[in-house]
Design goal:
With 251 residues, this protein is mainly alpha-helical. The chain is built from eight helices and no strands.
Length: 251
């Protein structure tokens, strides 16, 4: 259904109509496919490592009460809803940065990157403030049971910090994809979520008084570690590309 709607838009909408996207078809080129896969497959695995950790946390939390699991899912659902904004910023950055890098306008690419990261941070601060202030009505949206509402309110406090770290990391990850730097991003996702975040959450949940909240602290630690590593990688990539362009211009 979604694919059909996308095709109709590409064919009928005036923005895409001049390109005649489906007017002719060329013979598939394996080299072009491989070039796309070299970028797409690492991105896909990075997304998998990022999203699967939340499923793993939900499974690990199955040892707790039904109220706890319900509250966890409610808080996670609302935090995911808020995450759509920085995720959209990251997707837009991939397009804008990729376009500017392809045109050799590296200064413009850096400017777009700064705008995207600052936008993500601003949105995270704003939504975090709103979420903290209105945590009671938000918790009441999902359930009418007092125990679930109380637990959801507590989880939402952790969600404020969780979405703050996520809102910084998503635009940086989008910018790196614009620079076609995806392999190191894949490694960062694997290490930050599954080597740092999940084990930290499991230890805190099983060996401290935090119990189920320990998994949320683990997620926050993993996301924060990933955001810091991605920021460092972004600076490295930008310097490397700038040096490469200077060397090419000198020759």
């Amino acid at each position: 259904m979604i694919c059909g709607i996308a095709i109709i838009i590409c064919v009928r909408w005036h923005v895409f109509r001049p390109f005649d996207l489906f007017s002719s078809f060329s013979k598939p080129k394996i080299d072009d496919w491989l070039e796309q896969l070299k970028i797409g497959v690492p991105i896909g695995f990075a997304i998998f490592f990022e999203t699967s950790i939340f499923s793993a946390v939900t499974l690990l939390m199955s040892v707790y009460s039904t109220y706890t699991i319900a509250a966890h899912q409610a808080a996670m659902n609302f935090a995911t809803l808020l995450y759509m904004i920085p995720l959209s910023v990251g997707i837009a950055l991939t397009i804008a940065v990729g376009y500017e890098v392809g045109a050799k306008r590296l200064d413009h690419a850096k400017t777009y990157t700064k705008i995207g990261i600052s936008s993500g941070l601003f949105v995270a601060l704003f939504t975090g403030f709103v979420l903290f202030v209105f945590r009671d009505p938000v918790a009441a949206l999902y359930n009418s049971t007092p125990e679930v509402i109380d637990l959801t309110r507590q989880f939402i406090i952790f969600a404020v910090f969780y979405q703050l770290a996520d809102a910084i990391g998503a635009p940086i990850q989008g910018a790196l994809r614009g620079y076609k730097d995806v392999n190191i991003t894949l490694v960062i996702a694997l290490v930050s979520y599954w080597v740092i975040g999940l084990p930290t959450g499991w230890i805190l949940a099983n060996y401290t008084k935090l119990e189920p909240f320990g998994y949320w602290v683990g997620i926050i630690v993993g996301l924060s570690s990933g955001a810091i590593a991605l920021f460092i990688r972004l600076k490295v990539v930008q310097r490397k590309i700038a040096k490469s362009e200077k060397s090419s211009a000198a020759i």
